[in-house]
Amino acid sequence: xxxxxxxxxxxxxxxxxxxxxxxxxxxxxxxxxxxxxxxxxxxxxxxxxxxxxxxxxxxxxxxxxxxxxxxxxxxxxxxxxxxxxxxxxxxxxxxxxxxxxxxxxxxxxxxxxxxxxxxxxxxxxxxxxxxxxxxxxxxxxxx
Amino acid sequence: xxxxxxxxxxxxxxxxxxxxxxxxxxxxxxxxxxxxxxxxxxxxxxxxxxxxxxxxxxxxxxxxxxxxxxxxxxxxxxxxxxxxxxxxxxxxxxxxxxxxxxxxxxxxxxxxxxxxxxxxxxxxxxxxxxxxxxxxxxxxxxx
DNA sequence: AATCATGTAACATCATATGTATCGTGACAA
DNA sequence: TTGTCACGATACATATGATGTTACATGATT
Lengths: 143, 143
Fold this sequence. Notes:
The structure is a homodimer.
Chain A (H helix, E strand, L loop, with lengths): L5 H13 L7 H8 L3 H14 L2 E4 L5 E4 L8 H7 L18 H27 L2 H5 L11
Antiparallel strand pairs in A: 1-2
Helix pairs in contact in A: 2-3, 4-5
Chain A binds a DNA duplex through helix 3.
């Protein structure tokens, strides 16, 4: 499968929204990401449910930031978009009674869990505000 | 997609082969893994090309270990089965000129690379021989 | 009332590991 | 020599999950 890019996409969007006055429509965001407005709504729904953004209908509507960027980490965004699946590799459990298989799976999963813990720690240590520091440049909104 | 379980499956097989006299057929291995002989041949082909196992045709043929288990790490097996794809998450590059996107992707990929480095280090630090220590028990070969 | 924008459902597309069927090839044995 | 065994390889089917797309409903603004 293609890589799950929801985290990086939403970070991209959130930082643009932070530098943008007024609501941004799903259409505008979709052009920015090179995708479709429905995909944007679908993915942003997780951020909305988590309270990080708010959506407004009708004329002049769209998406606006609804949280303090200092208080939202990259990990928070990752979880809000519903991306619990980090690794593409894992174990199979065909014979739960097989000592060999249990030892192998324990070794592999131990390594995976440590790597996941490190990733979680690093994503959790960076806030959107920190990520936003260092540039104030907008990019073009066309694809 | 389902998790890629080629690494854990091959480790499972290799440790059984280490405790087994004579060649093991793909059919036998397939029953052990709860899968198909063709899947076994396909996956074992990587190990064969890397020199970790050897295959023999004809009566009494099958798969045998062809390397010192002390010299083969879990990382070696991972690479031999052609599993370079570790993460299910990643970045999208729609606007290579967008400073925001570049900053976001850099942050995400930095975290991923550190997690990958840790995983690689841990897999590389364990040999098949070490993994084989601690049990000499066979599991049943039926699914 | 018309328009804009989100919300949602339904279906298509794509990528990749896995499952399955089939045939070819080489090795061993009767 | 011939039959059987086991691998080698190809082709195709299946399952899963993110993504792309179309269509329609709902609510807000003008």
